[in-house]
Batch of 4 targets.
Target 1
Amino acid sequence: MYFERFFDKGLAQASYLIGCQQTGEALVVDPLRDVDRYLDAAQREGLRITHVTETHIHADFLSGARQLAAGSGAQLLISDEGGEDWLPRYDHTPLHDGDRIQLGRVSIETLHTPGHTPEHVSFVVTDTAAGNEPVMVLTGDFLFVGDVGRPDLLENAAGVAGSAETSARRLFSSTRRIRRLPEFVQVWPGHGAGSACGKALGALPSTTVGYELRFNWALREESEERFVRSVLSGQPEVPDYFGRMKLTNRDGVPAFDVEARAVKLDALSKSVGSEAQIVDTRSVESFSRGHSAGALNIPDDGSFVTWAGWLLDPNRPVVLVARRERVEELRLALGRVGVDEVRGYVEDPGDLASVSGPMETIPLVSAMEYARSRDDHPGTLIDVRSTDEYAAGHIPGARHIHLGDLRDAARNFGPDQALTVYCESGGRSGIAASLLRGLGMNNVTNLSGGFAAYRCLDGAEVERSEERVPG
Ligand SMILES: [Fe+2]
């Protein structure tokens, strides 16, 4: 049996290639849209991709399953267990609980494990060349290392009112099902630490049923009521692009142009166009010193894809400010969240001056300077962190507006209102400050170092709030 895991750091997402070396047949589970990586790997290993499947209708990225099946001639197997509303609206071979996928000597059983989503399935893999007991289970977003997938996305991302509790109860039943597998069975989940599909995901790439039975709170919990309460509390904010991803994934994701390359725009380029969104991927510090008017600063780091999905308009083209060697990776990351049109890139934001006018700056203020001068500059202080972070401790008087909600909230600000934004360490507030500037606020300051720096000041006052969600 051949087995390979592909891990995308930006999404903290894992996809898998499983094959039978004797017959050369192979299956890909949960592919991303840049499908050439699976085709290349299969070719390298002398395998043919004969089957493509996914564990569930994803909310955090656009699936590459349809495109990969079309490109490889593979059978596309998708769960039909989700009920009328969550049946795939494109051609596929339906998968049901108990169905087997045979790849030569490798036998894969479908296990319906609803809860994170209604149609969710896991895949129990047996390598019959080695033995008759399963060797591993691919659990998608049902079971992670140390946690289970959140059951509230259907309600909070897809707007199915009242579904969070029903889904949590289904998830509890699914945990009872997985407990019946032998302890030695390896568990390969669909996400690692950093994903918003759960709240306490472990960093290890895999685990075993036995280890999870001992250490995963969700498998250990015997009371359904306690399970439901625990799993629904303390979940991170739901990125609002999750709803859009789910519907596109259900209805059929358009093909992504894997071969396309972003072009470098020259200084006098007119191709930027007024409808383009300028996404400046440099550090907060570089951006603050000088950037094109209207540019959104989303630094090229581990959170790029999440904030791009959350804050960009998928129907408008993007112009990147980025280093040449990073452009292709960034284009793929944007494609993962459905922002498909990258019109081009510049390495130096000055190259955009002919279309976007003179460069702008955003003042950075240290925690110490801010604490010293606050009385002289009352203004509005905005904490853009999560609800939990804000509740656990914030600068007195700060208003909580999560970064994902800032665009809507900004409608209530005047263009000359003094606004100071902060987060934990200055990263998210950099994005926030650029967003506010781009929306026409002229008096925005970013508290560099964020709450972490503020908290370390001698005599720093910290306010806690009741709105904390118990974790
Ligand atoms: Fe998911």
Note: Residues 467-471 have pLDDT under 50 and may be disordered.
Target 2
Amino acid sequence: MSEPIRVLVTGAAGQIGYSLLYSLANGDVFGKDQAIILHLLDITPALGALGGVKFELEDCSLPLLRDVVCTDQETVAFKDIDVAVLVGAMPRREGMERKDLLAANVRIFKSQGAALDQYAKKTVKVLVVGNPANTNCLICSKNAPSIPSENFSCLTRLDHNRAKAQVALKVGVTTDKVRQVTIWGNHSSTQFPDVRHAKVTLNNGETKQAYDAIQDENWIKNSFIPVVQKRGAAIIAARKLSSAMSAAKAICDHLRDWWFGTPNDDWVSMGVVSDGSYGIEKGLVYSFPIKCQNRTWSIVQGLEINDWARDLMTKTAQELIQERDDAFDATK
Ligand SMILES: NC(=O)c1ccc[n+]([C@@H]2O[C@H](COP(=O)([O-])OP(=O)(O)OC[C@H]3O[C@@H](n4cnc5c(N)ncnc54)[C@H](O)[C@@H]3O)[C@@H](O)[C@H]2O)c1
């Protein structure tokens, strides 16, 4: 049994936290021989509820779980952590302007970036989930200059999983038979869910390009893409709460693949700091097709981009540039 790793979850008293913590603590993500100490951060009024979550984690009787540190202090929460899952964010309230929401989140992620810089291990892996996830991740990374920008990522795996599931439903296969799907851009309704390079293994064992398996380009353009882009809103409309179970599952998928690697014949989607690949402005946190190995990631190169795809990729990049500029304005 190796030394315990310290994993921070912020917003841990919230609904994603509640769906996530069991999977982190029982070895589903970092392995069945990896002991873990959970650091749970939330705001002061949520500490009572957080205490209840700690009771429940104890009651799960999990041998890998060595300690649960509940706190409202960044100095405690970020101390010596190996992994940070930044879920807590300012929610949009009735009548709140987008600009005010962004400014509130910039404050949170600026402070948490500085706390990472000061207290976390320099090898810490950071996953930003709280929205606007890409821009929050950018702000966090900018405020943690001593930590390599490759250690920062934001969650677009939920969108990726949604895209796989929609294709699987359409073709009549299980989701594991759909590979090489990509989410490009922002975790927002401008994202581009792309199946132009995806492959599907049919129930007869034959593997085809997703376009040939689906045989319905109109469905791809006019149903599949908007359904994936607007799935988050559809869940809020139906549940009156945002996605939590599927978000927690996606967080686990993202972290597990970063830790243990992606399969040879597949890739995943992660929001990462752009190195200029595919003409996306350097420095933006943009979702790309990603392969992971040895706890590092790389952008899948060489995928053909036609004019239609280029337009969609540019549109979502432009939204991110606007968010970034607004966020930087808010820090002045
Ligand atoms: N990227 C994605 O795919 C994705 C998917 C689903 C939800 N989200 C986002 O995740 C976030 C959390 O969702 P939820 O459903 O768990 O919300 P929630 O409101 O149930 O929980 C959020 C928690 O964060 C806490 N919090 C607020 N500010 C904090 C701060 N500064 N420090 C620490 N904790 C703080 C709150 O007290 C609350 O307990 C939201 O921003 C949501 O939009 C992202």
Note: Residues 10-11, 13-17, 41-43, 46, 87-91, 108, 129-131, 133, 155, 158, 187, 242-244, 247 surround nicotinamide-adenine-dinucleotide (CB under 6 Å).
Target 3
Amino acid sequence: MQIKTSSRLEGIGEYYFSQKLREIDTLNKEGKDILNLGIGSPDLPPHPEVIRVLQETAAQPNVHAYQSYKGSPVLRKAVSNWYKQWYAVELDPETEILPLIGSKEGIMHICMTYLDKGDEALIPDPGYPTYSSAVKLAGGTPVTYTLSAEHNWQPDLVALGKTDLSKVKLMWVNYPHMPTGQLPSVSFFEELIAFAKKHNLLICHDNPYSFILNEEPVSLLSVPGAKEVVLELNSLSKSSNMAGWRVGMLAASKERIEEVLRFKSNMDSGMFLPVQLAAAKALELGKDWYDSINTIYAQRREKVFELLSLLNCDYSKQQVGMFVWAAIPDSYTDGFALSDEVLYGASVFITPGGIFGEAGKKYIRVSLCGSVEKFEEAIRRIKTSVTK
Ligand SMILES: Cc1ncc(COP(=O)(O)O)c(C=O)c1O
């Protein structure tokens, strides 16, 4: 039977990684043994205490019912304490926190809550591809703002302020920035809040990487007056090694939380309570936890630097987060060409920067979610097979 998909899917392809993982799977079935250095899914386990809470609570008979749409009070309190301890941000656990089934779903919820046909949302180029898809699926129009190494991968707010922003309702920002690993400067965050107020738009800050290879996690909500204009997404996927658990959160004013909940409560029916209680435990972990994962990521990053140097790529050692972003040498037309050569020549998959937007075309991104041995093997293969 032929049936036409909805017009809202026009221009929305299958997610790049979903497609690429299938291709890698096919190559593996042909006996290739591809080393995947692409996707940012932590390979390390969560803290054992987190697993213990999940196991013990899941064994209880009274935890299997539907849960509150607003999330468990235990998890909301844990989020509030976590924001206070690490970001010096006060959030009312009753009204200013909304647990999410991963922060990715929050991107869609926010777009569905605020965008009508004709409304515009500013999105970063390069940036996480979901911002643009979610804006389009919600019926809005994504308008990219270009980031560049020359401007420290931060938007030029003066230039942006001179463009027609009359239809813009949302601006997506993400610092530490993925894919470039750029940290935000304090003055930039302050300017951003002033910009949002001046132009009457909401800033949606996506903040899943603030603990990875970064000693000073920062929330956009820590800027005075930010709550009036900021919705901040955060996640346990990367900082607690819980990507598959699907736990994230939205932090914002009571008014914004209620608005988003109007949409979200029609989409899902809460999260399994043992997952929420285990997530609350993860948020209580101290500096030792973050130090322990960062020690491992730092060792891996050294290997990734070595691999990138071998490919004659140029990179900043100041970047943070779960990836290394690198400019390709002039001998390749773009990151796709380099990625293909390494995939088909050395059976190593590296993400081409172009999937994050036009401005990422001359770059590649390597994920730190693999063992030192895996990177050593990738280096060995590239040394023997890739000549440029
Ligand atoms: C910038 C950015 N935002 C959001 C997400 C989604 O994270 P979550 O697992 O919380 O849905 C990712 C995942 O890779 C990401 O890179």
Note: The chain has a mean pLDDT of 96.
Target 4
Amino acid sequence: MVDPNVARWFEQVDKTRRGRLNAAELQEALKNNNYSSFDINVVAAMIEMFDKDRTKTINLNEFNELWKFLGSWRQCFDRFDNDRSGQIDAGELSTALQQLGYRFSQHFVPVLMQKFDYSGRASHLQFDGFVMALIKIQRLTTAFQPYDRQRNGTAQFTYEQFLATVIQNT
Ligand SMILES: [Ca+2]
Ligand SMILES: [Ca+2]
């Protein structure tokens, strides 16, 4: 079942009326709290995840699934946006990662800020950067775990295993 509000929004951004959104149209549909559009890299990642019929475009059913996915991430984002600024700063991100069960040192958060603050300021994550950061961490953690036999956060792998893992997951 497609939510009628979602269907209406889909129709508004489907300017070409072809029943499917390309990357530019989807980018128009996905907004951060400050009304900026999602970064095009995040739009591309969303298409890759939700384009089930491999058309490189997003139809209404795919859009509906994407919308539900982002809705649950939005709740998570709002929960960790402690000062209600509509963006996630380094302190909020650090708390979020801890509460989501990750154990990182203080050196790791700046790496994330650098990469996922698409404004280039490395100071705040908008919703798109927050979602992207957590998706990547989830994926790479899952890819790392089979190598981490003692479950202590260290692993040995060959150069080729490392490359394969990164290429498959980023
Ligand atoms: Ca599709
Ligand atoms: Ca905030």
Note: The mean pLDDT is 96.
